[in-house]
Inverse folding.
């Protein structure tokens, strides 16, 4: 059983976490380079939020949104 868990450790430490080790080394050279992936994710999330708010406004302006408090059966 010990070999099984050591195999899992080897898989993660020696193979799957190698890109993260590269990011850790890159941070010492360039903070912006190491955090580029985070900035990309934040831009994607911001774009998704803007799109979502625009869609909410479209449905609100059209009057198709049911804002009655009994819109769901569990609220009755």
């Amino acid at each position: 059983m010990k070999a099984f868990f050591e195999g899992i450790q080897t898989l993660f430490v020696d193979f799957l976490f190698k890109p993260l080790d590269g990011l850790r080394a890159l941070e010492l050279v360039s903070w912006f380079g190491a955090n580029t992936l985070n900035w990309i994710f934040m831009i994607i999330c911001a774009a998704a939020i803007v799109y979502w708010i625009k869609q909410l406004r479209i449905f609100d302006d059209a009057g198709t949104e049911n804002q009655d408090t009994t819109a769901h059966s569990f609220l009755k």
